[in-house]
């Protein structure tokens, strides 16, 4: 036990001088904007080499350019996380460029809101495919590079969830179901891959200021399988800066604050944290 404590203490002492993730490699999906972009920039600032993946490769490249301009190292990989070839494409590109994988941050996602009784099969299926099946397939593809006996490097999986997955959410039967599923996924990875030194956790966000919580009337959208899907929340339901009375801190989080929660779970500061769901909500839902 004393040897283990000394090892952790020494690792932290060394990393503080070079960044919490110095020399480590992180794949972050949906990292061209919002929380994913903030996470990519923060991870790079803490010394990680970042693989920035996004549906929009041009925007992903802009994040990579920003990281490199600041002296970091990164790689852009464009593509749909739910595509059959995407997991192997990302894993192969990462290994070719950086030679290893330390962290996978399953962040990519969007909302496709409908009341339960009006939700068509395709609106339910696509959310499950992007938020649940895609993370599972990416982690599975990376297994040979993470499940390595005797590897003492810091390695982790962080799934991005939501308070919708913890408490349900009106008009989001698909999203709430998916966000609940990735919590169970992380707990299972924790149990299966713990013997290999791989930690697996989830971060559940509350109200974070992104395009998913902006007013739907602003017109933000995403194209999925040729269909235009509107993003955001109607103003009547609080989109674009609705009431924060239910949040003890009295305000929404910024994407940077949300990204800090992800960094904590991936960093050596959480070296003995696995199977946990960290609520980053400003105190709402307690």
From TrEMBL:
Keywords: NADP, Oxidoreductase. GO terms for biological process: fatty acid biosynthetic process. It holds the Pfam family adh_short_C2. One of its GO terms (molecular function) is oxidoreductase activity, acting on the CH-OH group of donors, NAD or NADP as acceptor. The keyword NADP applies. Residues 24-196 form the Ketoreductase domain. The keyword Cell division does not apply. InterPro entries: KR_dom, NAD(P)-bd_dom_sf, Sc_DH/Rdtase_CS, SDR_fam. It comes from the Eukaryota. Gene3D superfamilies: NAD(P)-binding Rossmann-like Domain (3.40.50.720). SUPFAM superfamilies: NAD(P)-binding Rossmann-fold domains. Belongs to the short-chain dehydrogenases/reductases (SDR) family. PANTHER family: 3-OXOACYL-[ACYL-CARRIER-PROTEIN] REDUCTASE, SHORT-CHAIN DEHYDROGENASES/REDUCTASES FAMILY MEMBER. This is Ketoreductase domain-containing protein. It comes from Postia placenta MAD-698-R-SB12. The lineage of its organism: Eukaryota, Fungi, Dikarya, Basidiomycota, Agaricomycotina.
